[in-house]
Amino acid sequence: MAFRDTKSKIIIKTIEQIEGIRLSSQLAGETLKVVAPYVKPGVTTDFLNKICADFMRDNHAKPATLGYHGYPKESCISVNDVICHGIPGKYELRDGDIVNIDVTTILNGFFGDTSSMFMVGQVTDHAKKLVEVTKQCLNIGIAQSFSGNFVGNIGYEINKYATQFGYSVVYEFCGHGVGLKFHEEPEICHVSDKNSGPILAPGMVFTIEPMINAGKARCKVDKHDGWTARTIDGKLSAQFEHTICVTTTKPYVLTDVNNEFEIPSKLF
Ligand code: MF3
Ligand code: CO
Ligand code: CO
């Protein structure tokens, strides 16, 4: 028999590290703001990637995705039935498309990771609803990110909410610890059991990035590029992502550049 490994490898960040991760995260958030006005019918995803890449470099940050396990671009751009890891290319956006743009910056060695949905022209009510519910899933996950809570309650609450609308939650990709590296412990699953997993503590920094599907939860990865993850039924998928720091008070949403979340008065 083996003893369960109870040693947590979750890095508790120092105040100085949190400040470094915050600056990188803010730049990642700003990148999404800068690219937003270019998301229009007729624009290629490669062009949107270039806007992101130029902005990151102009601000002395490196795009973490470029060369990551061989990934070829500075952002991930996932359209319609693509769940995540869409590779920017020659595809021209069309009226009615829903698009996720995901950027991860490395600034002074610190990582910030965020993504958001964009709607191209007029989208159907059904697509709008999926996007709205997915954004709410992220907010629900953030609200669970308080000291003393179980990591599992993030995914438990997200899944409970999303399934009420007949949607399904992707379980093959998760959120993750972030900050000193791109992907650290813990894994933040968006479907999980109540009161499961590690206990949250001040100084933990991780992403929450729910991928919500209009149909079935399963995904298939494109054989040709080895990255693009699509829904198996061809139905729509949406995703939002923030980088969060657990504090003694409120969750600190480091990638928030729209003042959507209150800044906690005290971290430790
Ligand atoms: N930014 C993605 C995440 O949220 C990861 C992209 S990895 C890549 O974790 F290799 F596809 F770029
Ligand atoms: Co992430
Ligand atoms: Co990301």
Overall description:
25% of the residues lie in helices and 23% in strands. It is of the alpha+beta class. It has one domain (15-253): Creatinase/methionine aminopeptidase superfamily (Creatine Amidinohydrolase), CATH 3.90.230. Strand 7 (175-177) and strand 8 form a beta hairpin. The radius of gyration is 18 Å and the shape is globular. The mean pLDDT is 97. Bound molecules: 2-amino-4-trifluoromethylsulfanyl-butyric acid (MF3) and cobalt (II) ion (2 copies). One cobalt (II) ion binds next to strand 4 and strand 5. Residues 113, 176, 207, 209, 241 line the site of one cobalt (II) ion (CO).
Strand content: 15-25%
Q: Report Rg.
A: 18 Å
The tally of strands reads 15
The average pLDDT is 97
Q: What is the succession of H and E elements?
A: HHEEEEEHHEEEEEEEEEE
* Intertermini distance: 39 Å
Structural class: alpha+beta
Helix-strand blueprint:
Elements: H1 15-35, H2 45-58, E1 62-63, E2 76-79, E3 82-84, E4 98-107, E5 110-119, H3 125-143, H4 152-163, E6 168-169, E7 175-177, E8 184-188, E9 205-208, E10 211-213, E11 219-221, E12 229-231, E13 237-239, E14 242-245, E15 252-253
Antiparallel strand pairs: 1-4, 2-4, 3-12, 4-5, 6-10, 7-8, 9-14, 10-13, 11-12, 14-15
Helix pairs in contact: 1-2, 3-4
The structure holds 2-amino-4-trifluoromethylsulfanyl-butyric acid and cobalt (II) ion (2 copies).
One cobalt (II) ion is lined by residues 102, 104, 113, 115, 209, 241.
